[in-house]
């Protein structure tokens, strides 16, 4: 099971040890700006060429199917969703930010982030014979705990 999330920092500090300098306290100032994250769809065969200029600003690349297209990436989250691609040739999602991107891992959550947004991925194994809802609940508890500690409070799933 994959859970991917991206959200805007609200001003509570950062679980990554980055001091918070957010002065605004209104709800509106904590909402994501329309320019904090962009998603594009790129043919998998053209991904390497496309990312040459975007590499320092790439939060994540999401592929569907075989995973071959994502091996070119180094400094971003590279996620392969185990579903067949719906188009031929296959496309991948490229999530970028206008700001430089840093990567980290907190617990089981892999992260790519800027001061404005975090893109995260938590991968857990689905149980055989167990309840999927229990696994999903534990995964979301970990995600919400990270969101609370880091100050990125607007979750986009």
Task: Write a concise keyword list for the protein shown above.
single chain, 157 residues, alpha+beta, four-stranded antiparallel sheet, four-stranded mixed sheet, 8 strands, 20% helix, flat
Describe this entry's structure for a reader.
The chain is built from 3 helices and 8 strands, in the order E-H-E-H-E-E-E-E-E-E-H. The chain is an alpha+beta fold and 157 residues long. The longest helix is centred in the last third of the chain and has 19 residues, at 132-150. Residues 6-31 have low confidence and may be disordered.
Quick structural gist:
By secondary structure, the chain is an alpha+beta fold.
Task: Produce the secondary structure layout.
Blueprint: E1 2-8, H1 27-30, E2 38-43, H2 47-54, E3 58-64, E4 77-81, E5 91-96, E6 102-106, E7 109-113, E8 117-123, H3 132-150
Parallel strand pairs: 3-4
Antiparallel strand pairs: 1-8, 2-5, 3-5, 6-7, 7-8
């Amino acid at each position: 099971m994959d859970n991917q999330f991206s959200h805007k920092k609200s001003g509570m500090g950062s679980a990554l040890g980055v001091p918070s300098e957010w002065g605004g306290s209104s709800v509106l100032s904590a909402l994501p700006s329309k320019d904090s994250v962009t998603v594009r769809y790129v043919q998998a065969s053209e991904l390497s060429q496309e990312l040459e200029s975007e590499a320092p600003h790439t939060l994540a690349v999401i592929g569907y199917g075989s995973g071959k297209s994502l091996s070119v990436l180094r400094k971003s989250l590279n996620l392969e969703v185990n579903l067949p691609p719906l188009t031929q040739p296959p496309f991948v999602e490229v999530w970028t930010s206008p700001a430089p991107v840093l990567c980290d891992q907190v617990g089981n959550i892999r992260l790519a982030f800027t001061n404005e947004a975090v893109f995260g991925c938590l991968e857990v194994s689905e149980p055989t014979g167990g309840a999927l809802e229990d696994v999903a609940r534990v995964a979301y508890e970990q995600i919400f705990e990270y969101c609370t500690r880091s100050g990125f409070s607007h979750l986009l799933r």
